[in-house]
Amino acid sequence: MAWRCHGTTNSELISKLHSAGLIKSSRLLEAMKKVDRANYVPPSCSSEAYQDRPQSIGHGATISAPHMHASALENLLPFLNPGARVLDVGSGSGYILACVHHLITDSFDVKAYDSAPQAGFVLGIEHIPELVNESIQNLRRDGLGKMIDEGRIKVIVGDGRNPNNALGGSWDAIHVGAAAPTMPQSLIRQLACPGRMFIPVGVHSQAIFQVDKDENGEITEKELYQVKYVPLTDREAQIAGL
């Protein structure tokens, strides 16, 4: 199905993902149309920005295929509500950060609250400093510079495999953009009650898992489908693999 979703413009790409049933909700459709994928791929690849396939962004990292972004965001959508706190582990190009920002910000009706509501916040953690800098440039190029300056979107250098309380914890949603060898309990502990994590797990045989934590802190893991992702590893191993 994915091969049918190539486009010549961002709008065409997203519309094809919607027509193919990969984007199901109108909320996600509008959010992804606002994020131009051409701003998140290297300039040398700009002519292929709207192809439905993963692309290298340098430093041993990739930007996932658009259909995978759509699948991840659809899965997390029940937890991507206005005012949510979201963590993106292995944030790479910054594309997911941008989409999430629009989902947790748009339709934020201040009139529905007696007092000023808390703004949504999305944090990207990436262990390649060069990618952190490039992702911030990408986000600014995509018109989100003010959101970075106001602290609504933040990208930091760090090891997402071992987050600590300094990140704040209690994340409504966690997206992991690389495959962990085993299910990381350290990330599950970071989930809010309730909260959801979308994560690829495995070494040779990989699968996407949906990890839910309910209001009482009970954990449910559900395998969704098989995938092939780059590994969630340390900086040295990632660079050595080039």
From TrEMBL:
Signal peptide: none annotated. GO terms for biological process: methylation; response to stress. Its EC number is 2.1.1.77. InterPro entries: EF_Hand_1_Ca_BS (IPR018247), PCMT (IPR000682), SAM-dependent_MTases_sf (IPR029063). It catalyses: [protein]-L-isoaspartate + S-adenosyl-L-methionine = [protein]-L-isoaspartate alpha-methyl ester + S-adenosyl-L-homocysteine. PROSITE patterns: EF_HAND_1. Keywords: Cytoplasm, Methyltransferase, S-adenosyl-L-methionine, Transferase. GO terms for cellular component: cytosol. It is an enzyme of class 2 (transferase). PANTHER family: PROTEIN-L-ISOASPARTATE O-METHYLTRANSFERASE, PROTEIN-L-ISOASPARTATE(D-ASPARTATE) O-METHYLTRANSFERASE. Initiates the repair of damaged proteins by catalyzing methyl esterification of L-isoaspartyl and D-aspartyl residues produced by spontaneous isomerization and racemization of L-aspartyl and L-asparaginyl residues in aging peptides and proteins. Monomer. This is protein-L-isoaspartate(D-aspartate) O-methyltransferase. It comes from Cronartium quercuum f. sp. fusiforme G11.
